[in-house]
Amino acid sequence: DLDQIRSSLNGKPWVWVGDGFVTTNQVAFEAPPNAKPYLTPVPPELEAFSALLRSLGVRESFSPMDYIKTLEKLYEQSVALNPDLNASTDRKEISDGELDLAVGMCK
């Protein structure tokens, strides 16, 4: 039954997005441009299965909390690349793509 399938897939990467599998938390029918791999749009070739995808947990769009979590991931990655940093001025700069993503999510 559908509830068992949804439960089995919960938290597991199962939605194909063209270059790998992602969880339903990482994919939505509407996604900001250039947000992959954090926030991924449903690929056009899967739109024919939109009713099934929705019933299995794929959302129409991302929530504000998804954007907050993505910004946290960007921060954590910049710190993880520089674990010996003590001062905030010593943090690694994020890439231009990551900066565009962060600014775009805040608009």
Describe this structure in words.
The structure is a single chain. The chain has 107 residues and is an alpha/beta fold. It is built from four helices and five strands; from the N terminus they run H-E-E-E-E-H-E-H-H. Strands 4-3-5 form a three-stranded parallel sheet. The longest helix has 17 residues, at 64-80. The relative contact order is 0.15. The model has no long low-confidence stretch (mean pLDDT 86).
Structural descriptors:
107 residues
Summarize it.
By secondary structure, this protein is of the alpha/beta class. 39% of the residues lie in helices and 12% in strands. The model has no long low-confidence stretch (mean pLDDT 86).
Topology:
Elements: H1 2-9, E1 15-16, E2 21-22, E3 27-30, E4 40-41, H2 50-55, E5 59-61, H3 64-80, H4 96-106
Parallel strand pairs: 3-4, 3-5
Antiparallel strand pairs: 1-2
User: What is the overall shape?
Assistant: elongated
**Mean pLDDT, all residues:** 86
Question: Which quaternary structure do these chains form?
Answer: single chain
* Structural class category: alpha/beta
Residue fraction in strands:
5-15%
What is the terminal separation in angstroms?
Answer: 41 Å
Low-confidence stretches: none
> Quick one: how many beta strands?
5
- The string of secondary-structure elements, in order, is HEEEEHEHH
From the alpha carbons, calculate the radius of gyration and give it in angstroms: 16 Å
Quick one: biggest sheet? 3 strands, parallel
Helix content: 25-40%
Q: Strands of the largest sheet, in order across it?
A: 4-3-5
